[in-house]
Amino acid sequence: MRLRAVAAALLLCSACIPAAGDQQLSSQHLDDLRNGYRALSTTFYRGLAPGALVAGARAGIAGAIRASGHPAPLLPASRPGLDPVAQIAAAVAAGRRAKGLSETALTFAALDGMARAAGDRYTVFLTPKELRGFEEPLNPPHVFGIGVVLQQDDRTKDVSAAYVAPGTPAESAGVQNGDVFDTVDGASVRGLDVARLRALLLGKPGTTVRVRVLRDGAPGDEIAIVRAEVHAPTVYQKLLPNGVGYIAVGVFGEPTAEEFGAALRHLQRENAHAFVIDLRNNGGGYVNAAVGIADHFIHFGPIVSIAERSGTTEFDADANADEMRPVAVLVNHYSASASEIAAAALQDDGVATLVGSRTYGKGVVQQLTYNLDGSAMKVTTARYLTPRKRLIDGIGLVPDVAVGENQHARFGDPADDAQLEAAIGVVQAKARL
After folding, report:
1. pLDDT tens for residues 391-408?
2. Which residues are bridge partners to 368 per DSSP?
3. I need a surface site. Which of 193, 302, 317, 386 has the fewest CB within 10 A?
4. What is the 3-state secondary structure (H, E, C) of the chain?
5. What percent of the chain has pLDDT over 70?
6. For residue 241, which of 367, 419, 383, 424 has the smallest C-alpha distance?
């Protein structure tokens, strides 16, 4: 989970770093080491001995040198009483005598070794590339377009709107899921691939693109859509034929709580009489996104408690719950972290029935400490407790209705998704009570 930390260097006395180290390491790399050491020594949810972090850094440096195929130079001996960051900086400086490794690579190796010394699989050092890969799903890139997810039919080669996100220009203009794109700005787009059609739909915000679609094979009128800033959705919704609103949450990212609210309101306007929230294969994300989703259904009381070294923080419902219709939550073994926070809150409060299989069991919270060079230390800072004070780390959530996943399941299609079919049965039975 990310609670954004200040990327500035720690306030350490300059005398704590020997002059030789200061001369040999750049200020940026010294800041990286200080930030990493601070995150591990002060915010990791268990206490870590300074000597263990120094040893971990030295092991990381030695391992990187060996992996490069060069003999490891003699690293300075560990000296109890000397500032730990100074010892790590000296080891990085000494490692530069090995050929083929830059100061950046050695600094990153030291930070990686420090993270490994924590003995926690979720505490890791992320290079700039790894950090971008980690954060991109949680912070979908913004583009300027109309707000549709495109898909191409393998047989006809037609490109259609697989999903029209709520609140986007496409929805406002009347484009619906399943519509086939026929023309763009008067020219036929039949047979174009997704990439080429996407390029035609993108453009400067405020500009207009004219589109004609086919619905159920029949052409409609050409419609004008004003482009705006949009992003790839993290939430998908649709009204199933039986009047059940289906909301699938792909990840708990920055826009997820807002998108979930928009999807819920859209289905409310369509008079859904019950809801199925699909958290299967959702590996989590931000705690506040999970809290924001649960807040729609829980009227009062705790949603989750975060237990850190410094104490426990409780997140309570805002008493603004706007939905009281029957709810089921779909989970499986790959539902983890923030998914489990949301699912556990709804289960403990009694507002939802969990359907599917036991969840992953990741009951710990991470915090990112950012460096100015784009790298970061991701550290486990806390464990979380469900509203009924359950610890689920390594245990997971047990569904109220256990249903296995059918072979070749197509998630979201009741005819080919046994778990969804069971969840629909659960909420329909509740609605009839």
Report:
1. 999 999 999 999 999 988
2. 378
3. 193
4. CCCCCCCCCCCCCHHHCCHHHHHHCCHHHHHHHHHHHHHHHHHCCCCCCHHHHHHHHHHHHHHHHHHCCCCCCCCCCCCCCCCHHHHHHHHHHHHCCCCCCCHHHHHHHHHHHHHHHCCCCCCEEECHHHHHHHHCCCCCCEEEECCEEEEECCCCCCEEEEEECCCCHHHHHCCCCCCEEEEECCEECCCCCHHHHHHHHCCCCCCEEEEEEEECCEECCCEEEECEEEECCCEEEEECCCCEEEEEECCECCCHHHHHHHHHHHHHHCCCCEEEEECCCCCCECHHHHHHHHCCCCCCCEEEEEEECCEEEEEECCCCCCCCCCEEEEECCCCCCHHHHHHHHHHHHCCEEEEECCCCCCCEEEEEEECCCCCEEEEEEEEEECCCCCECCCCCCCCCEECCCCCCCCCCCHHHCHHHHHHHHHHHHHHHC
5. 94
6. 424
Both tokens of 223, joined, read 């419609």
Amino acid (one-letter) located at 28:
Q
pLDDT at 3 over 80: no
pLDDT at residue 154, as a whole number: 85
Beta bridge partners of residue 188, listed in sequence order: 183
What is the distance between the alpha carbons of residues 217 and 427, in angstroms, rounded to a whole number?
34
Q: Directed axis angle between helix 103-117 and helix 27-38, to 10°?
A: 10
The alpha carbon of residue 359 and the mean position of all alpha carbons in its chain are separated, in whole angstroms, by: 17
Residue 247: Cβ-neighbour burial (10 angstroms; 0-12, 13-18, 19+): buried
- Can you read off the two tokens belonging to residue 282? 């959702």
Q: 347-356 pLDDT, tens per residue?
A: 999 999 999 9
Task: Copy the structure tokens of residue 173.
Answer: 């203009």
Which amino acid, one-letter code, is at 365? V
Q: How confident is the model at residue 2 (pLDDT cuts 50, 70, 90)?
A: very low
Phi, psi of 246, rounded to the nearest 5 degrees = -115, 125
Average of per-residue pLDDT across 157-184: 92
d(CA 335, CA 337): 7
CA dist., res. 243 & res. 155, Å (int) = 31
pTM confidence score: 0.82
Catalytic residues: 337, 348, 362
Between 10-19, 156-165, 246-255, 288-297, the lowest mean confidence (pLDDT) is in: 10-19
Confidence of residue 231 (pLDDT cuts 50, 70, 90): confident
